[in-house]
Amino acid sequence: MAVPCLLDNLIKLLIERTFIVKPSNFLKNQHTHNVYSYGPPGALLRHNILQEWRRYVLYNNNEETFWVENSKSITAETPSDTRVGVEHYNSSILHRCPENYLVIAKQLSKKLSFSVAHTSVCFDPQRTSGENLSFLESSENTELTVTHFCPSTTIVSSFSDCHRRRLKWWRQYARFPSNFILSDPQQLNVNNETFQLFKVQFHFPWGWDTIETIINWRDYPLQCIKDVLLSGISAQSKIRRSASLPCVIESTAILERAFLAFLLDSFQENIHTYSKSKTRSESKTRSILKLHRRLVPYKIGVSVSGSKVSYLRKMALRIIKDIEDLELQVFHCLDTTNSLEKQYVMFDELGVLLTIVINDTTLESGIIGLRSRDTSLKEPLHVATLKDTILKNIQ
């Protein structure tokens, strides 16, 4: 399948700006499983996506959610196990789900409804990849999973609420929310039983593809511990005969898919026309990543331009320290050999929200320039009001 030009251009930008990093020829010969690794901006973007997902499941969910960690990664039984959207039953739910339920319901004495969230690395040694898609279709994927336990009487409403809220979560970070949709209900057949699922899909250059799957498992994963759950009730009791097990809803997203989906959604190419003379002009294509303010790797950029280089750098370092005290990631360019225009191009390709411009005038008057990524406009303001202005613009 030919990869569309849009994806080619995006991957070229990601490599140039070190979102993803190709290994050297030496490392390629060391039997590495991933053709690509993640550079500083790519690692920060992955971290921010994971943080937003974790914040949602732990603090913005409608019920109590518990975070657990797996001590080891999962090895896929078939190459399709690592891909969201392939109707292949991941048998690991039979091990994780009963164990998590027993720990929380029995030992912590928690009553329904509640959820368990965790991440896990799924590894498939048989997986092979194409040249361009190898950083996405690697042999190693990070699964973001939430398992919801609820009474059988509320499973229908809980399942409906779950897939609606998950679609809303994806769309709130999108530049074009219509790029994210919810599929029609589908069926998953496992051991002669049928389960309903929905998929959150993104409009990739090759078509609609799955980024998250939400499955209604009913009580299937807990059947293996039914006797343990009902151990306190007599076998002849009417209560035991009519008792029902908790039901399970599981949503699983793939971090690598989310990484590419948000980048594609934010990627924009603009044609700028420059006048080289009175009779001649030249057009150039400029790329920009308009990532959501909560996902962008670097919220603030610092640029220096002027002749008093040493003084400008000292002032820039003080400003950077003040911004980092706000726990914001800062990308700075203190090399005055590059023109401001080239620095703006670099900041736009990194998705930097706001760029602070320091020049010789700043040393005399304390006035700096604050450039917006989304409007390309630069407004003057005094350095004393900088922190308040930044907080106002990024929140």
UniProtKB/TrEMBL annotation:
GO cellular component annotations of the record: mitochondrion
Protein name: DNA polymerase subunit gamma-2, mitochondrial-like
Domain of life: Eukaryota
Organism listed in the record: Octopus sinensis (East Asian common octopus)
GO biological process: mitochondrial DNA replication
Annotated PANTHER family: DNA POLYMERASE SUBUNIT GAMMA-2, MITOCHONDRIAL, GLYCYL-TRNA SYNTHETASE/DNA POLYMERASE SUBUNIT GAMMA-2
SUPFAM superfamilies cross-referenced by the UniProt entry: Class II aaRS ABD-related, Class II aaRS and biotin synthetases
